[in-house]
Amino acid sequence: MGNDLELEAKDYIILAQSLAAEFAQTAMERDAQGGTPKPERDSLRQSNLLKLIIPQEYGGIGANWITTFQIVREFAKVDSSLAHVFSYHQIGVVIPHIFGTIEQKQYYYSETVNHNWFWCNALNPRDKRAVITAQENHFLLNGSKSFCSGSVDSDILPLSAIDQTTGELIILVIPSRRQGVKINIDWDSMGQRQTDSGNINFDNVIVYPQEIIGARYNQNSIFTTIRSCITQLNLANIYLGIAEGAFASAKNYTQNRKKPWLTSEVECVTKDPFILHHYGTMWVDLQGVKALVNQAIELLQAAWEKEHNLTPTQRGECMIAVNTAKVAATKVGLDITNRIFEVMGASSTSQKYGFDRYWRNMRTFTLHDPVDYRLREIGKWALNDEFPQTGAY
User: Fold this and answer.
1) Which of 2-16, 47-61, 120-134 has the lowest mean pLDDT?
2) Rounded Cα gap, residues 146 and 140, in angstroms
3) What's the pTM?
4) Distances from the Cα of 361 to the Cα of 28, 279, 355, angstroms
5) Among 59, 102, 173, 204, which is most buried by a count of CB atoms within 10 Å?
6) Do 78 and 150 form a contact (C-beta atoms < 8 A)?
7) How confident is the model at residue 260 (pLDDT cuts 50, 70, 90)?
8) What does the pLDDT read at residue 263?
9) Dihedrals φ, ψ of 157, to 5°?
C-alpha cells in the first residue's frame, strides 16, 4: 500500500471498495452459514483499516468520520455483518478518547496500532448484569453481557459494568482473552448472522485500575455524550448501505433476468411503466436519505473536532440531524429491501439468489433501537424546540 499516512481519503475508499468486492463473492454463502467470518476479518486486519480513525500522531491513518462512514457504507452494500463489526471497531477504539484521560487515550490508540488490535462492542448499558467489585489493588468483574457484537475473534473488549458499592455505571476496557472471560458462540438471529453479537460471561475477571475508563473523568464535558451521536449515525450509514446494496442487486437482476409480464404490452421489462415507477420511487428515496445522512456526518465531524469545547447547542443540533437521518434510513431501508421483489418477480425468491438477506439484515438491525423513540425526540424538537437528552452511550 505504500505509506498509509500519505494516502488520501479517496485511496482508502478505493481500498474499501476492493475489499467489498472480495467480500461480495462469498457474502450469500456466509450469510447462510452464520458464524465468524474469520478470513474476512483477517483481510480487514491486513488492510490496515483497523487504524483508520486513529490520529496520525499515534501512528494511525487519521481519517475523519466522513471517510470512515463512507467506508462503512461500502462494506454494508455487500455484507452488513462485516460493516457491523468493522464499524464497531472504529467506535470502540475511540472510547478512551471520549471518556478517558489523556494518558488512556494515548495508550489505547498507540497499542492498537502496535498490535493491530480488533475491538468489539459489549458496552450495552441497558444490560446491567455485569458487576465490578473493588479489591485491594484491582477489581473483579462478574456477570454477563448481551449483544456483544464482534466479540468472537476480537482482541479488545470495551464494556459497561455496575459498581457494586456505588451503583455507578463504569466503562472498562480489557483483553478479550483474559482469564475468566467466556465469549459464547450463541448468536442465532435471522439477520446480521456473522456479527457474533451473542453473550459473554465473566467469572472473577481481574480488572486493573488503569482499565477503568468511564464515569470518573471529564464528567462535566458535553463531549462525553457524543458517543450516542456516533453510534446512531453508524446505524444510519449501515441501513443506507444495505438499501443501496439491495437496489443494485435488484437493478442487475431486472436488467438481466426478469421477463416482461404477459399483459404488460412491452417487449423489454426495462420499459414497463410500473417497473419504472418503482425504480423511480426507490431512487428518490435513496437520494433523500443519502442527503440527510451526509448532512448529519458533516455536523458530527464538526462536533468531534470541538472535543471538550463542544457546547450543548452544537451537540443537540448534531443529535437532531443524526436522529432524522436514522429514522429516514430505517423507513426507506425497510421499504426498499421489501420492494425489490416487486421489480424482480417470483423467481427472485429462490434461495440460490439470497436476496432475502437484505431484508433480514435490515429488519434485525433496525429493531436494536426502536425508531419510535427517535421520532419522539424529533417531535420534541420540532414542536417544542427541545434538544434530545444527552445520553452518553
Assistant:
1) 2-16
2) 19
3) 0.95
4) 12, 21, 11
5) 173
6) no
7) confident
8) 75
9) -125, 100
Task: Specify the 3-state DSSP secondary structure of 58.
Answer: helix
- In the beta sheet, which residues pair with residue 182? 201
Summarize the chain as % helix, strand, coil (round to 5): 60, 10, 30
C-alpha cell read off for 67: 471517510
Q: Report the SS3 class of residue 262.
A: coil
> Measured between alpha carbons, how far is residue 116 from residues 14, 17, 41, 120, 212 in Å?
21, 21, 12, 13, 21
Query: How far from the centroid of its chain's Cα atoms is residue 282's Cα?
Result: 23
Contact criterion met (CB below 8 Å) for 339 and 249:
no
Q: What are phi and psi of 69, to 5 degrees?
A: -75, -30
Closest residue by Cα to residue 195 from 236, 160, 231, 146: 146
SS3 105: helix
**How far apart (Å, rounded) are the C-alpha atoms in residues 350 and 53?**
40
Q: What whole-number distance in Å separates Cα of residue 392 and Cα of residue 102?
A: 19
What are 138-169's pLDDT values in tens digits?
A: 999 999 999 999 999 999 999 999 999 999 99
Whether the Cβ atoms of residue 135 and residue 204 lie closer than 8 Å to each other? no
Residues pairing with 172 in the sheet: 159, 212
